[in-house]
Amino acid sequence: MIRLFVFDLDGTLVDSLRDLSDSANTLLVSCGGAPIEMAAVGRMVGEGAATLVARVFAAAGVPQPADALERFLAIYDTKLLNCTRAYEGIPDALAAIADRATLAVLTNKPLIATRRILDGLNLSRFFETGSVLGGDGPVARKPDPAALRTLCERAGVSTSDTMMVGDSLIDWETAKNAGTGICLARYGFGFREFPQERLNGRETLIDSPAGLLTLV
What we know:
Number of strands: 8
Number of helices: 8
Helix content: 25-40%
CATH architecture of the largest domain: 3-Layer(aba) Sandwich
CATH superfamily of the largest domain: HAD superfamily/HAD-like
Strand content: 5-15%
Radius of gyration: 17 Å
Shape: globular
CATH class of the largest domain: Alpha Beta
Order of helices and strands: EEHHHHEHEHEHEHEE
Strand order of the largest sheet: 5-4-1-6-7-8
Number of domains: 2
């Protein structure tokens, strides 16, 4: 029985790709680079802002300035909720699941930005303060299992009764490393680059948020 659902943010709860892409390209252009297609930026998301910034500069063939990360975060802060929206069906799915299990968020996005998005989209009501972990805290980021296990401990739920819900290989590896179940959202932009040969048949695959209701 699943007693704890731990959700990734970008590509799972919310579609944030346009705002991430616009922010990355604003930075690139300011550094003399050419914009990168949104789909290409989507393939670079998932391992935190620092990794995203390094990848976009490498892809653009532009030297990365020392303050690139700080500049990206400042730009993204102004675009955080321009186009970002919860995937259709997410609020209803969370409301239904919350009646039967504890909900948490585990993302490699900085915590302040994560909270602003959850607040701005009225999703914070589903998650207790201590059940939201970002990638800039004291616990190692995904795919290290430490943060996922921390959320299990805080909820008083074993890893065997926990389901990680995400859209990327990083989420899959995190669940595997922590010993939890994994549900992959095929609707998320991170799944487009998921290496299908890594699937082992023990995953739950869903094509929309409504698919989460089959798990409770």
